[in-house]
Amino acid sequence: MSLCLRGVTAGYGRSMVLRDVSITVPDGSVVAVIGANGAGKTSLLRVASGLMAPQAGWIRLDGENLTGRPVCDFAKAGICHVPEGRAVFPGLSVRDNLRVFSPARRERESIDRAITLFPRLGERLGQIAGTMSGGEQQMLALARAYLCDCKVILLDELSMGLAPKLVDVIFESISRLRGENVGVVVVEQYVDRVLAIADYVYVMSRGRVGFAGDPGEFADNDLFQQYLGAGV
Length: 232
Description:
Elements: E1 2-12, E2 15-26, E3 30-35, H1 41-48, E4 56-61, E5 64-65, H2 71-77, E6 79-82, H3 94-100, H4 107-117, H5 119-122, H6 134-147, E7 152-156, H7 164-179, E8 183-187, H8 191-197, E9 200-205, E10 208-213, H9 215-219, H10 222-229
Parallel strand pairs: 3-8, 3-9, 6-7, 7-8
Antiparallel strand pairs: 1-2, 1-4, 4-5, 9-10
């Protein structure tokens, strides 16, 4: 089964940001969404997580129609959205951030899983999340998504502003999610890096899908060189 968006048109007021967009995210796959700034990538994730209602088209997860339903229904169905920025509860400790997203009565097991994924978090369990470095907060944000037993994780520029070594850790953890049979959608500035782990790639251009296929096909496409030349 999978997450499917079909014919989605959405925007803000009269300004359309997405126009007839269709994507599929199979279970256990990593889907890269790339494109220039303003292409509609973040808006696509907002529609997929229920934060923005489409004006046309539909969203289904494992065949269940979520179109027009409240954002909490998207979360209950198994969609986890990690937006750009520090998606943590800054006033809570690292341990409590992890507890919030752990399944009931499995808190200790969940914290152990998070520490296995990001050992540095094990050294910070008692620390207030808002006092950690930006990279550590991103680790915590991804670890929380990893623990909530979701079916699809939507990641928006998770590596932005991170040192190269931390970027390596983030991409390794994304690859690990594939083994958990979780579908992952990655909006990412590091095109080469995300294509190296992606099973499928969608290129957004002015609110539309300009290319859809596997990374190998895209690497051989003239569009790839155009985007590299544009610094995307």
